[in-house]
Protein backbone atom coordinates (compact mmCIF):
# COMPACT_ATOMS: atom_id res chain seq x y z
CA UNK A 1 0.00 0.00 0.00
CA UNK A 2 2.89 2.33 0.82
CA UNK A 3 4.45 1.67 -2.57
CA UNK A 4 1.17 2.48 -4.29
CA UNK A 5 0.91 5.76 -2.41
CA UNK A 6 4.50 6.71 -3.30
CA UNK A 7 3.84 5.81 -6.95
CA UNK A 8 0.76 8.03 -6.92
CA UNK A 9 2.78 10.93 -5.54
CA UNK A 10 5.52 10.50 -8.16
CA UNK A 11 3.12 10.37 -11.10
CA UNK A 12 1.19 13.47 -10.13
CA UNK A 13 -1.61 12.57 -12.56
CA UNK A 14 -4.19 11.77 -9.92
CA UNK A 15 -3.61 14.81 -7.70
CA UNK A 16 -7.33 14.96 -6.91
CA UNK A 17 -6.96 11.66 -4.99
CA UNK A 18 -4.62 13.22 -2.42
CA UNK A 19 -7.28 15.39 -0.74
CA UNK A 20 -9.65 12.43 -0.74
CA UNK A 21 -7.00 10.28 0.96
CA UNK A 22 -6.33 13.03 3.51
CA UNK A 23 -10.04 13.32 4.33
CA UNK A 24 -10.28 9.53 4.65
CA UNK A 25 -7.27 9.44 7.00
CA UNK A 26 -8.72 12.20 9.20
CA UNK A 27 -12.06 10.38 9.29
CA UNK A 28 -10.37 7.17 10.46
CA UNK A 29 -8.56 9.09 13.19
CA UNK A 30 -11.82 10.66 14.37
CA UNK A 31 -13.41 7.22 14.68
CA UNK A 32 -10.67 6.23 17.12
CA UNK A 33 -11.42 9.09 19.56
CA UNK A 34 -13.56 7.85 22.50
CA UNK A 35 -16.83 9.70 23.00
CA UNK A 36 -17.44 8.82 26.65
CA UNK A 37 -20.92 7.47 25.95
CA UNK A 38 -19.93 4.03 27.21
CA UNK A 39 -18.57 5.47 30.46
CA UNK A 40 -21.81 7.41 31.05
CA UNK A 41 -23.86 4.26 30.53
CA UNK A 42 -21.76 2.34 33.03
CA UNK A 43 -21.99 5.18 35.55
CA UNK A 44 -25.80 5.21 35.34
CA UNK A 45 -26.03 1.45 35.80
CA UNK A 46 -23.94 1.54 38.97
CA UNK A 47 -26.23 1.57 41.99
CA UNK A 48 -25.26 4.02 44.68
CA UNK A 49 -24.59 2.47 48.05
CA UNK A 50 -26.08 4.24 51.07
CA UNK A 51 -23.68 6.21 53.25
CA UNK A 52 -22.03 4.03 55.91
CA UNK A 53 -20.63 6.15 58.75
CA UNK A 54 -18.64 3.31 60.32
CA UNK A 55 -16.96 2.42 57.02
CA UNK A 56 -16.16 6.10 56.40
CA UNK A 57 -14.59 6.39 59.86
CA UNK A 58 -12.52 3.24 59.24
CA UNK A 59 -11.21 4.58 55.93
CA UNK A 60 -10.44 7.92 57.56
CA UNK A 61 -8.57 6.18 60.39
CA UNK A 62 -6.50 4.25 57.84
CA UNK A 63 -5.60 7.42 55.98
CA UNK A 64 -4.79 9.44 59.10
CA UNK A 65 -2.65 6.64 60.56
CA UNK A 66 -0.40 6.93 57.49
CA UNK A 67 0.50 10.53 58.29
CA UNK A 68 4.08 10.60 59.47
CA UNK A 69 4.25 10.74 63.26
CA UNK A 70 0.52 10.23 63.85
CA UNK A 71 0.62 6.58 64.89
CA UNK A 72 -2.52 4.44 65.10
CA UNK A 73 -5.36 6.95 64.93
CA UNK A 74 -9.02 6.67 65.99
CA UNK A 75 -11.78 8.90 64.63
CA UNK A 76 -15.31 9.65 65.81
CA UNK A 77 -17.58 11.69 63.52
CA UNK A 78 -20.94 13.19 64.42
CA UNK A 79 -23.55 13.84 61.77
CA UNK A 80 -25.52 17.05 61.46
CA UNK A 81 -28.12 15.41 59.26
CA UNK A 82 -28.74 12.05 57.65
CA UNK A 83 -28.72 11.15 53.97
CA UNK A 84 -31.47 13.06 52.12
CA UNK A 85 -33.19 12.61 48.78
CA UNK A 86 -34.44 15.33 46.48
CA UNK A 87 -37.66 14.06 44.89
CA UNK A 88 -39.00 14.80 41.41
CA UNK A 89 -41.90 17.25 41.48
CA UNK A 90 -44.54 18.23 38.96
CA UNK A 91 -45.26 21.97 39.15
CA UNK A 92 -48.31 23.44 37.47
CA UNK A 93 -48.98 27.16 37.21
CA UNK A 94 -52.61 28.24 36.76
CA UNK A 95 -54.47 31.55 37.02
CA UNK A 96 -55.68 30.65 40.50
CA UNK A 97 -52.23 29.73 41.79
CA UNK A 98 -49.55 27.09 41.62
CA UNK A 99 -49.72 23.44 42.56
CA UNK A 100 -46.85 21.07 43.31
CA UNK A 101 -47.14 17.29 43.31
CA UNK A 102 -44.43 14.73 44.02
CA UNK A 103 -43.91 12.44 41.04
CA UNK A 104 -44.61 8.76 41.72
CA UNK A 105 -44.35 5.64 39.61
CA UNK A 106 -46.23 2.38 39.81
CA UNK A 107 -49.78 1.79 40.84
CA UNK A 108 -51.75 0.80 43.92
CA UNK A 109 -49.61 -0.32 46.85
CA UNK A 110 -46.55 -0.50 44.56
CA UNK A 111 -46.28 3.31 44.19
CA UNK A 112 -42.89 4.84 44.87
CA UNK A 113 -41.40 8.31 44.63
CA UNK A 114 -38.82 9.26 42.01
CA UNK A 115 -35.56 10.47 43.56
CA UNK A 116 -33.68 13.02 41.46
CA UNK A 117 -30.65 13.38 43.70
CA UNK A 118 -29.32 11.81 46.89
CA UNK A 119 -27.53 14.21 49.22
CA UNK A 120 -24.75 12.87 51.43
CA UNK A 121 -25.11 13.55 55.14
CA UNK A 122 -23.52 16.63 56.62
CA UNK A 123 -20.95 16.36 59.40
CA UNK A 124 -21.24 18.30 62.67
CA UNK A 125 -17.84 17.58 64.21
CA UNK A 126 -14.88 15.23 64.46
CA UNK A 127 -12.75 13.85 67.27
CA UNK A 128 -9.32 12.52 66.34
CA UNK A 129 -7.27 10.62 68.94
CA UNK A 130 -3.65 10.10 67.97
CA UNK A 131 -0.53 9.30 69.99
CA UNK A 132 1.43 11.74 67.81
CA UNK A 133 -0.97 14.68 68.26
CA UNK A 134 1.37 16.21 70.86
CA UNK A 135 3.50 17.44 67.96
CA UNK A 136 2.01 20.65 66.50
CA UNK A 137 2.97 19.70 62.91
CA UNK A 138 1.24 16.31 63.23
CA UNK A 139 -1.82 17.92 64.83
CA UNK A 140 -2.01 20.44 61.97
CA UNK A 141 -1.65 17.69 59.34
CA UNK A 142 -4.41 15.64 61.00
CA UNK A 143 -6.73 18.66 61.22
CA UNK A 144 -6.17 19.57 57.57
CA UNK A 145 -6.74 15.99 56.40
CA UNK A 146 -10.01 15.66 58.33
CA UNK A 147 -11.13 19.07 57.06
CA UNK A 148 -10.45 18.15 53.45
CA UNK A 149 -12.18 14.77 53.66
CA UNK A 150 -15.26 15.88 55.63
CA UNK A 151 -15.72 19.53 54.68
CA UNK A 152 -15.55 20.56 58.35
CA UNK A 153 -13.79 23.72 59.41
CA UNK A 154 -10.88 23.46 61.82
CA UNK A 155 -13.10 24.85 64.62
CA UNK A 156 -15.23 21.68 64.40
CA UNK A 157 -12.28 19.25 64.60
CA UNK A 158 -10.73 18.24 67.91
CA UNK A 159 -7.34 16.53 67.68
CA UNK A 160 -5.97 15.18 70.92
CA UNK A 161 -3.30 12.83 72.19
CA UNK A 162 -4.24 9.53 73.69
CA UNK A 163 -3.67 5.84 73.63
CA UNK A 164 -5.49 3.91 70.93
Outline the secondary-structure elements.
Layout: H1 2-11, H2 17-32, H3 37-45, H4 53-65, E1 74-79, E2 84-87, E3 89-94, E4 97-102, E5 104-105, E6 112-113, E7 115-119, E8 123-129, H5 136-150, E9 157-160
Parallel strand pairs: 8-9
Antiparallel strand pairs: 1-8, 2-7, 3-4, 5-6
Strand tally: 9
Radius of gyration (CA) equals 30 Å
The string of secondary-structure elements, in order, is HHHHEEEEEEEEHE
Q: Calculate the mean pLDDT score and round it.
A: 79
What helical percentage do the residues reach?
A: 25-40%
Distance, first to last CA: 71 Å
Major sheet summary line: 3 strands, mixed
- What is the CATH first-level class name of the largest domain? Alpha Beta
Could you give the order of strands across the largest sheet? 1-8-9
How many separate domains make up the residues?
A: 3
User: Quick one: overall form?
Assistant: flat
Quaternary form: single chain
The CATH homologous superfamily of the largest domain: ANL, C-terminal domain
CATH architecture label of the largest domain:
2-Layer Sandwich
Amino acid sequence: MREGFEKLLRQGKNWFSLPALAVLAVGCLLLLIPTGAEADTQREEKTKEPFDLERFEERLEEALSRIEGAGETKVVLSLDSGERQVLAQDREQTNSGASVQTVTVGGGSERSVVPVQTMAPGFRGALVVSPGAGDAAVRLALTRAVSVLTGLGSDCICVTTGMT
